[in-house]
Description:
By secondary structure, the chain is an alpha+beta fold. Helix content is 38%, strand content 18%. Helix 2 crosses helix 3.
Amino acid sequence: MGRPARFACVFALLLVCLCPSAFTAPAEPGAQPRSDGTARLIQGAREEIERAPLYRSAYYKEGYPPEREGVCTDLVWRAFKYAGYNLKTLIDADIRNTPAAYPRARKPDSSIDFRRVPNQTAFFKRHAQSLSTRITPGDAKSLNEWRAGDIVVFTNPDHIAILSDRRNSDGIPLLLHNQGPFATEGDDFMPWYKAGIVARFRFFR
């Protein structure tokens, strides 16, 4: 073995001893490799939570609500903005091009359309991967299929959220969402799921 090869082996051994985490799997239960887009989507949602916008449903002529206000859809478009995607521009254009896909926007209004759950749902149905809405607590395979960054849509009432990269002790993902009075990251997936789930989408694959 030549000197460069011996040096490489010694360096690798030192790295294992001094930084074992570099060679171990992530601690997150059911962790999956994430694209940069997914990581930024989650970080954008967390920044929204740190701002703690007050839940307030209102119409704004300019389209965008004040930074300190918002609803569930505002957390979603703000997270996507952080990830480099302008959902308002994308949804407005999609409504113009395919109005039949947006029954809630029969009279298009760019000041509010992008902030409606049915319209965000229609957009993701057309431009993201649609996934199973079935989850089985205690089943590792089922839980692993629910990945960080997945977008989930619930009913009773209409509600949209993003799955966190953190999970509870049972492996159920936490939710990044604004259900009032403020945006939160919490262990409340199952109550929403049991009340009724409409869809699950994966934008970043």
